[in-house]
Amino acid sequence: MRFDEKYSGNVFIGASDDLEQAQAVLYGMPMDWTVSFRPGSRFGPARIRESSLVHEEYSHYLERELTEIVYYDAGDIPLAFGNPEKSLRQIGDFVRQVLDKKKMPIGMGGEHLVTWPVVQEVYKDYPDLAVIHIDAHADLRTDYEGEPYSHATPLRKIAELIGGQNVYQFGIRSMTKDEVTYVKEAGIHFYPFDVLEPLEKCLPSLAGRPVYVTIDIDALDPAHAPGTGTPEPGGITSKEMLAAIHAIARSEVNVVGADLVEVAPAYDHSEQTPVVAAKLIREMLLGFVK
């Protein structure tokens, strides 16, 4: 998909059609080729866009309106169905075009493996990059059942690329013993179970640094977001997730990209999951795009 192609379907609320003036580009990564439990997250971006219509363009939390920023919704990247390696290259190529135009990439997944090529490209421009990862799962495996391209491996790949000391993980409540060992060996800043309190303590140490933020919707408790491929009991509330996004937005970190992944609409007939996701995306746009 060319960076400057106009998306012809639904767009996220408040999106501009002025690509040249856009400060950020919102895009979908409809891939779920490697999921280990329930597929369907490839339908997440489209449903999040549709669900955005239920929300106001004004955020009472941040006292900003989407008309105060300029962002372009480029639609979903047309990925090679069933081919993880080619799909990851396509995502990387698309994001490279966004970065070359000096615009912030804000992605919607799709499974969590889609974050890997995005961080690869962002890291080329920001070699002192740090990654804030909010999730139920550590995603630090080297492989899943022998397959290195898996939604269980992106943060391992990222840690090996940018250095574990530059990875900050919050809310994790499901991981293997090997992943626990790797966290200690790699020097990852690891904060299980909780998100907001440890995040607020870490943010001052990241002041001035370029930061990529990746959020898996399953960090929320299934009671708040049942529409995901690998639900994990014991998570945070949507209120806590909003507060975490606002804490990052109000901090001195330099957010240079972000994504929200793993929304699988088919498992939530109430549609609360894409509705929550759309609100989180709105707050990320208003909070991260300065």
UniProtKB/TrEMBL annotation:
EC nos: 3.5.3.11
GO function terms (MF aspect): agmatinase activity
CDD domains in UniProt: Agmatinase-like_2 (cd11593)
Keywords: Hydrolase, Metal-binding
SUPFAM superfamilies noted in UniProt: Arginase/deacetylase
Taxonomic superkingdom: Bacteria
InterPro entries for the chain: Agmatinase-rel, Ureohydrolase, Ureohydrolase_dom_sf, Ureohydrolase_Mn_BS
Family label: Belongs to the arginase family. Agmatinase subfamily.
PANTHER family in the cross-refs: ARGINASE/AGMATINASE, GUANIDINO ACID HYDROLASE, MITOCHONDRIAL
Name by which UniProt lists this protein: Agmatinase
The species this protein was found in: Laceyella sacchari
